[in-house]
Amino acid sequence: MNIAIIDYGSGNLRSAKKAFEHVLADLGGGTVTLTHDPSNLTNASHIVLPGVGAFADCKEGLISINGMIDALHEQVINEAKPFLGICVGMQLMADVSREKGDTNGFGWIPGDVVAITPQNKDLKVPHMGWNGLQINHSVHPAVSGLPNGAHTYFVHSYHFVTKDPSHVLATVNYGAPLNAIIGRDNIIGTQFHPEKSQKIGLTFIHGFLKWRP
Q: What's the number of domains the chain is made of?
C-alpha cells in the first residue's frame, strides 16, 4: 500500500503519518508519503486529506497548490481510490460551509457545514475533548471494528449535516447528535482525529486500510 497524505499547510501531518505507519507495519508494510505534489496521487493506493482550522482557509490552501483539486477529483471520484478526510478534510466533502460566509466544498457528499449550537448552554463551543461514538454497524465495513461508545478525540466548532441519512456512519452526542463519521462509495470522513484517538484511532485506520470499496 502507498498512502498519500496531502500536505497543504493544515493538519496534524506528523501525527497522522506516524499513525498510518504504525498500522501499516501491522499489515505487512507499505509507504506513507506527505505530499504537496498532485502527481503523487497517481501512484497512491489510498489518499488522506487532513484539516485543522477554518474551512475557507483550508480550501484556499488546496487551491494554492496548482492542480491539487483537479488531481483529487480525478483520483478519488474518477479512479475511485479509497479516500479519508479528517476533521476539516471531512467537511470539505460537503456542498458548502456556512463558516464566516459561504464557501463551496467539493460536493462529494451532499450537505452543509454549519455551526454547532447546543441546546444545553452548559456545553461549550468548540466541542473539544473525548466523546463516545454511536455507530451504525450495518452501513460500512470500515467501521465494523469500532465498538459503540468508543471514545475519540474532537476539536471543532462546525459540523457536517448530510442531506442523506444513509451517509451517516456514526454520531456523537453533544446536546444533540453530531455526525462523527460519514461516507459513501469509496470515500469516508471523520470529524474526530484518529491520529490523536489512541487505540481506537488506530483501529479505525486499520479498518480504512483493509476496506476494499
A: 1
Nearest by Cα to 29 from 56, 3, 54: 3
Q: What is the DSSP track for 136-168? A: -TTT-GGGTTPPTT-EEEEEESEEEEESSGGGE
Which positions are annotated as active-site residues? 87, 193, 195
The whole-angstrom separation of Cα 122 and Cα 144 is: 33
- What are the phi and psi torsion angles at 14 (to 5°)? -65, -40
Q: Which amino acid, 38?
A: P
Distance CA 72, CA 78 (A): 9
- CATH number at 189 reads 3.40.50.880
pLDDT tens digit string along 165-201?
999 999 999 989 999 999 999 999 999 999 999 999 9
Say if residue 9 is exposed, middle or buried (CB neighbours under 10 Å; 0-12, 13-18, 19+).
Answer: middle
Rounded CA-CA distance 186/51 in Å is: 19
Range of the domain at 56: 2-210
